[in-house]
Amino acid sequence: MAIDISKITIPTHPGVYIMKDDTGKIIYIGKAKNLRNRVRSYFLKNQNYKTQKLVEKISDIEFVLTDNESEAFLLEANMIKRYRPIYNIELKDQQRYTYLRITNEEFPRLMVARRTRTGEFLGSGRVYGPFTSGSSKMLSIGLLRKAFKVRICKSLPKEACLEYHLGNCEAPCQFEQARQRYGKHISELESILKGKQKLEDFRKKLENEMQDASLRQHYETAKEIHETIQRLENLQTRQKMESTKNYDEEYFGIVVQDQTAHVMSFRQTNGVIRDRNRFSFDLVGDNSFSSFLSQYYSTNPIPKSIVSSELPEKKDILEEVFSRTAGFKVNIIVPLSGKRKEMIRLIMKNLILYQTKGFEPAIVELQEKLRLDIIPNVIECFDISNHGADYAVGSMSRFVDGRPDKSGYRKFKIKTIQGRDDYAMINEVIKRRYLRLLTQKDKTPDLIIIDGGKGQLRAALDALKSIGSKIPCIALAKENEEIYTPKISEPLVISKNNQVLKILQHARDEAHRFGVAYNRSLRKFS
Q1: Domain of 288: which CATH number?
Q2: Does residue 119 surpass a pLDDT of 70?
Q3: Quick check: is 504 in a domain?
Q4: Is residue 493 part of a domain?
Q5: Residues 431-459: tens digit of each pLDDT
Q6: Per-residue pLDDT tens for 305-360?
């Protein structure tokens, strides 16, 4: 039975989507800059015959988030090589990205480097990359060779060749000064390939050469230089899915929810992230992250480094056992910075996506934007309706999964405040509402919204603090729709077309409407 795409929570992040049939078999793997837009496009009318057949067989779709489109590109290619989905069959052996290699020679050359299926590089030398999107020769190797006077001959000739006379090489085979300068040229080239500061200088040099070629009506040369300038952007994208270093390590993220631990791992072999695994176990008896790792590595190869979001219990004992079993030193670490830290952050992001399956996508996005610890599935929003000293009321709307829960709306007649003091009124209403919930041990909301700005937010936070409550609280200012939060110093501005803002506005407008109606009824019968 074909999947109902309207019932699937699809993130808007870049990443990989994995389509499965009714037996759980992977039938297609793709990548996207915006997963929601790309996946939904499969289910539009007027698709070609093959796409229609694919869609008919889809029973489930999984997602793996990445930080950018290039990482999605690499992970997609690696997963296709591993699973060989039937609908990806024509793409399985295509070259999807490129590495460049500087050889280990007295006068090094610049070459295209290739990887085997196991991730090992062919040939010796220093390897840079991967460089994604575009043709297999990403950076127009010929232009780089010319720019940095890199020789192309397989062995040094006895005298200067045609490349010297064309100005493409300084002939280190012939001239002492050329030999002395060659190392500097290679060093500058490596700085470019590493994406360091000299990249901008090189870009400006190319732009000048392009303008000069255009003025001389050498349009083919100008076009080639222009394409190289565009492709230089690839050097500035940091990659985590691939590394030129032959790391052998595994990354674990763990999240506990309702007495169940959710674990996700990425395995890196020979510097390549090929896949992800996901596990769950109940926290019963002696079940723990430590016992999970012990069982996991009883049937899986042990890497030299185990990188985790948190340290397992009995870490030292685990390291000792794993080292003895593997025959080499094994370390279990929690990274504090660098590429490993980025990888753990990405795994935790994917774990949150897995936990939020079935939630309204905008609510999940709201959690991310506000940096909340949990998904704000239950939201309560407050407004003060003030018509003189005798007609001041507070009102509260309640939203569940992004929709109004009108049975949960509440109204408050101001009891302790005289005059028109909105801040004090907010303080009173918040204190009354949540002191009652805490006293009765009722469930509190996941997020509180205050209609107002910094002052109203401060009043609400003071009230929550006075009763010992730590419910997340934000304020939504009506004039410019700015969001104020204690975790972010500057106000957060969300696009007016974003569903996240629309939910916040709807909650605010409902609280206001409910309060005005209550205020009007008080004045009518007074």
Answers
A1: 3.30.420.10
A2: no
A3: yes
A4: yes
A5: 999 999 999 988 899 999 999 999 999 99
A6: 999 999 988 888 888 888 888 888 999 999 988 888 888 888 888 887 776 665 66
How do residues 484-509 score in pLDDT, each as one tens digit?
998 777 888 888 878 889 999 999 99
The CA distances from residue 382 to 357, 372, 396, 406, 442, in Å, are 29, 19, 5, 14, 19
3-state SS of 448-506 is EEEECCHHHHHHHHHHHHHCCCCCCEEEEECCCCEEEECCEEEEEECCCCCHHHHHHHH
Residues 134 and 190 in one domain: yes
Domain extent for 166:
104-236
Decide if pLDDT at 135 tops 50: no
**What values do phi and psi take at 453, rounded to 5?**
-120, -145
Same domain, 294 and 331: yes
In a domain, 96, yes or no: no
Residues 6+ apart with CB under 8 A from 287: 261, 281
* Residues 317 and 455 reside in one and the same domain: no
Pairing of strands 249-257, 305-308: parallel
Report DSSP state, residue 109.
-
Could you give the number of structural domains in the chain?
A: 4
The answer as to whether 99 is a domain residue is: no
**342 and 479 in one domain?**
no
- Same domain? 396 vs 486: yes
Written as one letter, the residue type at 512 is H
**pLDDT beyond 70 at 525:** no
Question: Secondary structure of the chain: what % helix, strand, coil (to 5)?
Answer: 40, 25, 35
* pLDDT, averaged across the chain: 81
Specify which residues 403 forms β-bridges with.
400
Same domain, 467 and 371: yes
Predicted confidence band of residue 91 (pLDDT cuts 50, 70, 90): very low
| End-to-end Cα, the chain, rounded Å | 62
Shared-domain flag, residues 290 and 411 = no
